Amino acid sequence: MSRDQLNTSTLGRFARMGGLVGRVGVSMITGQAAGLLRDGPTKRLKKAENMVRNAARIASTLGEMKGAAMKVGQMLSLHEGMLPKEVAAVLSVLQNDAPSVPYKRMEAQLKRELANFDELFEYIEPEAFASASIGQVHRGILRDGREVAVKIQYPDADRMVKADLTNMKVLLGNLVALFTDIDFEPIWKEVRERLVEELDYDQEAESLRRAAQMYADLPTIIVPEVIEEGTTQRVLTMQFVEAIPPSEAMSDDYAQELKDRWGTTLFEFTMRGLFQHRFLHADPNFANFAFREDGSVVVYDYGCIKHVPERIASGYARLIDALLKRKKTAFPALLQELGVYKEGGASISRETTDPYVDLMQDIVRASPPYTFGDDGAFYKAIYDLGMANWHEASDVRFPRDMIFIDRTLGGLFGNLGALRATGPWRKLLREYTTPLLNTEAARRRPAKKKAAA
């Protein structure tokens, strides 16, 4: 497919995804059959090679398709515990290496959306600053001299997404089933809602305004200002904030002390969103953040916002409280209260939960403070636990509200690992969960009876 063309037809996109599933399925079945003839390291090597080859097919096809198909590919790449690490690694290219659409097509979209285009813009860079699943960003200058970032939705992106939503549940459900037995239904329902929301840039602009108010008292978080006269349902124009991109921020060019400050800010941003505001920036792609030498972090892309129900936020707070107090025995019951249990209603066993608690216990230790590594050791440990508990976890049920929360937390840990950040994680967890726990405790206490006159 030429980059000048975007396949927006339902039939065409169905055929593309159907062909992808077929090719991956045949390849994996063939690989499994050949694997029966091997054993030991050779078998494991061939299995890994087959996974990488299939993941490359997936990344290539979904990256070119854009729309909902690419967005789901991006989501899968962030769930390192859901997919084999070889697959997640290749799919990760969808986070920051999406092919861009030529500017001549995007300029036509701009002029259709903005009747005041010529009066508003002095210049727009033809080369995309960033590209993603349903739109791409170009830098520009307004006629009043302000530097801006212009997020432009791909032409017919709504048709692409609707075409994908018509077909993708079955096709990508089958694709996920090639790698895992996880229940795709709650993932699908939650993803569908978020995808539809991301088509509305007016709604994203409102999320930007709301976030700016919420974090006004936290100067280390910078939320770009919305340029109202350059914003419509398909175009979002924002203040361009000069900052260090993640690829540079994680390099040796910057002191570790500064990286620790950035990591602490990212952690606090997420904890606030989950527990205090219950308004969670739920796209933890590292490219959605940029960094400044004063320790502040610029947060972009508010298209994916998860409004966290209070019950769910309280459930996570209780789990963290038990973690901080080293109450391993409490986890099965707390998970059940949260809505995480085995099919039929039975609690998850301690044989399953204890190893995860032990792993997280290290992160929340008081001293010395935990340092996230960039060697993937944390995710490898999670993955190994997942493999060890595969049969136990295959029939686990969980609330759909957890999908984007867990995605965000997993992405946060990955970003902290990229920065090799050390920070006061225990203190921040306590700081942001205590008010919620106190409110819940007060609500549960019976009201005092008035003394008799």
Task: Please give a structural write-up.
The chain is α+β, with helices and mostly antiparallel strands. It folds into three domains: 10-97 and 160-197, no CATH class; 102-153 and 200-241, Phosphorylase Kinase, domain 1 (2-Layer Sandwich); 243-444, no CATH class. The chain is 56% helix and 10% strand. The protein has 18 helices and twelve strands. The chain has helices at residues 10-35, 40-65, 67-78, 85-91, 103-113, 117-120, 157-177, 184-198, 201-214, 246-249, 256-276, 310-324, 331-338, 350-363, 377-388, 390-393, 402-419, 425-444; strands at residues 121-124, 130-131, 135-142, 147-153, 221-222, 235-239, 279-281, 289-291, 297-299, 305-307, 341-342, 396-397. Strands 1, 2, 3, 4 and 6 form a five-stranded antiparallel sheet that branches. A three-stranded mixed sheet has the order 5-9-8, covered by helices on one side. A hairpin with a 3-residue loop joins strand 2 and strand 3. It is globular. The termini are far apart. The model is unreliable at 1-6, 24-38, 77-82 and 93-97 (pLDDT under 50).
> Strand tally, please?
12
Number of domains: 3
Q: Quote the beta fraction.
A: 5-15%
Average pLDDT figure: 80
Query: Helical residue percent?
Result: 55-70%
Major β-sheet profile: 5 strands, antiparallel
- Helix-strand topology string: HHHHHHEEEEHHHEEHHEEEEHHEHHHEHH
Helix/strand class: alpha+beta
Distance between the termini: 84 Å
**Poorly predicted sequence stretches spanning 5 or more consecutive residues:** 1-6, 24-38, 77-82, 93-97
Coarse morphology: globular
Gyration radius from CA atoms, angstroms: 23 Å
**Total helical elements:** 18
